[in-house]
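Holo prediction. Input below; ligand is zinc ion.
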Amino acid sequence: MSKAFSNLLKHIDKLSHTDKERVFQWVKHYVEPSLTVDGRLIDEMREVRYKEGFECPHCTSEHINRFGKVNGRQRYRCKACRKTFMDTTNTILYRTRKGNEWITFVECMFKGYSLRKSAKIVGVTWVTLFYWRHKLLSALKQMGFEQFDGIVEVDETYFLYSQKGQRGISERKPRKRGGKSTLRGVSKEQVCVLVARDRTKATVSKVACMGRVVKTKVDGMIGSKLTPNNVLVTDAWRAYKTYADERGIEHYRIKSDDGKHVIKGLYHIQNVNGLHSRLKHWIHRFKGVASKYLDNYLAWFLLVDSHSNESTKHNIKELLLTSFVFEMTETYRSLRLSKFNM
Ligand SMILES: [Zn+2]
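Structure of the complex:
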C-alpha cells in the first residue's frame, strides 16, 4: 500500500458516517458508471414511457415532428398544439442536470436515511428532497403487480389520525406526539391500514379508511388482484368472511388469542403480522407521520423492507425507470396544501 493511499484511508476513517457516504457515492460514479444518467438510460426510459406509441405530453396527439436539438438531446414539436417537448418533459429529469443526484437519492431512500442526512449526501436542499421523496414514492406506488398467487394473508393495523405539519388547524385540538386515542378499541379517530401479502411477497399496503375496515373497502383495495384460485387468510373480523363468501374464495379465519395468532398449519397471518410490527417500529423514527402522507410512507417502508431481497438491484433499476417515466403534477406547494381525504 502506498503512503498516499494509507494516509487517505486514515483521513476517511476519521470522517462522519454522512461524509463517508459522500465519499462512497463519489467513488462509485467512477467504479460503476453503468448506473448514471446518460444517453442509454434516457433511451431506455423513452421506450418505457412511450411503450403504447409516441404522443405529445401536452395534448396526447400522435402527430409529431422532430424539432432540432437542445444540449445534444432531441426536441420535438406537436403538429396539433404546436408546443415543443423533450423525451424528459414533465419528468424528474426535465430541466435538471441532477440526474445522477437523483440516483444517489434513490439509494439513500433504500437505506432509509432521513432527509437531513440525505440532503448532505446528495448535495441538494432539504426542500428539494422533500419534493423528490414524494415524487419517488408516487412512482413507487404505480409499480404494483397484476395478481396474487396462492395463499393471501390479510390483516389491518391502525394509526392514530394526525394532521402533523398542517398550520391553522381549528377542527381538532392538537394532540401530543404518539398520544393515545381517547376512545377505546378501534374508533373513527384511527386510520386503518390494510396489508395483504401472498407467499411470494407480492404486497398491497395502503390506507383503507377511518375506523374499522368494511367489505367494500377490502374489495376496492385487493379485489382486482384476487381470483378464485386464491385462499384468503384473515382474522375473525366479519367483513372478510362476507367478502370471501361473496367472491367464492376459500377463506380461513384465524381467531386471535391474547393478541397472538394461532397457526393452522399453512394457514396463518404471521407474515403480515410480522410486517405490521416491523412497519410500526420503522415508522416510529419519524415521530408521527401526517395521515395524508401515510400511503407514501407505507410504499417507502415496503421498499426498505424488501432491501434484503436478491432482486433489489433489479428493483432499483425498475424504480429509476418508473420514476423517470412517471409524469409529475404535484409541486412542493400542492403537496404541503393537500388534504387527507377518506
Ligand atoms: Zn400536442
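Residues 56, 58-59, 61, 78, 80-81, 83 surround zinc ion (CB under 6 Å). That is the main takeaway for now.
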